[in-house]
């Protein structure tokens, strides 16, 4: 599982500057996807090829007790409780403040590992800056400059050092598709899980060894194996499964990462919210296969159904490749069809694409529409091969490919997806330019 680093500190110490620096290397394709709203507080960072989650708790104002600030504070508290390590930022230019001391007391209480980080340290004497903050009692602070990048790599190195590196995909696939049921609170995830697991044979149920482990529940349906990746600490209570923890963005992110297919559950009786779109955005960014379950279809009339379908087409247009199902988890309606789409999305995500057919498809796409010239450069694509699965990655080789615009990259993607009839998974294209 990816370690989670959580940034805390009073407002203006540089948390969001550090967050942006850590999460900057984004897939350009996802970054300019029209309609996609991203949650700027959760991101994926990379140290070399080692990924980790980063959470920015925003301004930690210990005084806020109600309203939207209190809700933010609640989410910050939850992120702190679920952190693998806390990066406690202070401002080297402003020096130690009473608010820093107050936050230090609270962080000590959490029992999580804390790294004290003195930011804005560029051009300052490290020893002098560090001395100022010693009395916070977290040992030697790490001095960085989030805006210049000084010391950031060393900080992340130190923060990640205690956590084991994930073994690279030794999944033999025998457990069937790994499915994460995701969505905001109250959309009906637990109800859907019970509809799936209720009458079906739950093969085994491994309890987590530590809180870091997510529970996976293998089950069988119509003679096929699946593994459910839990997002909320499912426990069996009598005949039904019950989510014992409240909604957690970090657990959702981890479940998406560990799954092959994410089932995004939406509530038909409510408007599509920003939180829905954020969760969809997380899944999109991860490259997972996806199926959308619009739940509580039993509870809405035909007028609302029409309205909702229009709303979905507009707000989730970046998921045009995913199948949408209109279901009632409560009444068990539409679940068979939903699971057939899960199967289809898994198959699409795992597809093996033969090099000759990929290259022929590429040539045909170029004939239909050649990439635009860029000044004196004329990008020339020569051949394509598959570079990965879940999501399928098509590596295109040629010359001057760095001059191909994103719009053309998207055209190629759509073309590959149509020709190979990939439904339910995104597809990614990587350009490899020959050096000469
Ligand atoms: P946050 O409220 O903790 O998220 O803080 P921000 O990231 O918004 O930064 C607050 C201010 O500090 C902004 O004006 C930043 O440009 C500035 N800042 C952030 N990091 C550094 C740094 O390393 N050095 C200096 N000199 N300023 C910084
Ligand atoms: P979760 O927080 O996403 O796990 O949501 P729950 O499964 O706990 O469901 C939240 C509420 O929605 C409960 O009161 C459920 O009974 C109700 N609910 C779930 N699925 C449906 C459905 O298909 N139709 C209707 N009408 N209500 C549902």
From TrEMBL:
Record's keyword annotation contains GTP-binding: yes
Key words, A-Z: GTP-binding, Nucleotide-binding, Repeat, Ribosome biogenesis
Amino-acid positions noted as binding GTP 1 in the UniProt annotation, renumbered to this chain: 9-16, 56-60, 119-122
InterPro entries: AAA+_ATPase (IPR003593), G_ENGA (IPR031166), GTP-bd (IPR006073), GTPase_Der (IPR016484), KH_dom-like (IPR032859), KH_dom-like_a/b (IPR015946), P-loop_NTPase (IPR027417), Small_GTP-bd (IPR005225)
Ranges where the EngA-type G domain occurs: 3-167, 177-350
Reported function: GTPase that plays an essential role in the late steps of ribosome biogenesis.
Oligomeric form and interacting partners: Associates with the 50S ribosomal subunit.
Name of the protein in its database record: GTPase Der
UniProt organism field: Niveibacterium microcysteis
């Amino acid at each position: 599982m990816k370690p989670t680093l959580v940034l805390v500190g009073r407002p203006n110490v540089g948390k969001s500057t550090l967050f942006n620096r850590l999460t900057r290397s984004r897939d350009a394709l996802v970054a300019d996807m029209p309609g996609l709203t991203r949650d700027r507080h959760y991101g994926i960072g990379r140290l070399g090829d080692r990924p980790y989650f980063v959470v920015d708790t925003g301004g930690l104002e210990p005084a806020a007790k109600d309203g939207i600030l209190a809700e933010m504070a609640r989410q910050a508290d939850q992120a702190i409780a679920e952190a693998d390590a806390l990066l406690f930022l202070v401002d080297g230019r402003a020096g130690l403040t009473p608010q820093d001391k107050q936050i230090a007391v609270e962080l000590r209480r959490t029992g999580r590992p804390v790294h004290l980080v003195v930011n804005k340290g560029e051009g300052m004497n490290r020893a002098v800056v560090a001395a100022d903050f010693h009395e916070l009692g977290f040992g030697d602070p790490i001095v960085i400059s989030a805006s210049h990048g000084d010391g950031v790599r060393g900080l992340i190195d130190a923060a990640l050092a205690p956590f084991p590196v994930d073994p690279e995909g030794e999944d033999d696939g025998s457990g069937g598709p790994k499915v994460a049921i995701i969505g905001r609170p109250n959309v009906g995830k637990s109800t859907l899980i019970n509809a799936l697991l209720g009458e079906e044979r739950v093969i085994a149920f491994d309890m987590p060894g530590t809180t870091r482990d997510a529970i996976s529940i293998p089950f069988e349906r119509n003679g096929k194996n699946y593994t459910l990746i839990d997002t909320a600490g499912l426990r069996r209570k009598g005949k039904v499964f019950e989510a014992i923890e409240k909604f957690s963005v970090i657990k959702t992110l981890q479940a998406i990462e560990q799954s092959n297919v994410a089932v995004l559950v939406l509530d038909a009786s409510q408007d599509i919210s920003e939180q829905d779109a954020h969760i969809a955005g997380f899944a999109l960014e991860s490259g997972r296969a996806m199926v959308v379950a619009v739940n509580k279809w039993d509870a809405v009339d035909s007028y609302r159904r029409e309205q909702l379908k229009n709303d979905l087409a507009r707000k989730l247009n970046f998921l045009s490749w995913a199948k949408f199902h209109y279901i009632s988890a409560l009444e068990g309606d539409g679940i068979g069809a939903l699971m057939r789409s899960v199967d289809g999305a898994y198959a699409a995500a795992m597809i093996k694409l033969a090099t000759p057919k990929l290259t022929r498809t590429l040539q045909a796409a170029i004939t239909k529409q050649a990439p635009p010239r860029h000044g004196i450069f004329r990008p020339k694509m020569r051949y394509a091969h598959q570079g990965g699965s879940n999501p399928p990655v098509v590596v295109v080789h040629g010359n001057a490919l760095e001059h191909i615009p994103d719009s053309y990259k998207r055209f190629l993607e759509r073309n590959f997806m149509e020709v190979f009839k990939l439904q339910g998974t995104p597809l990614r294209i990587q350009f490899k330019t020959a050096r000469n």
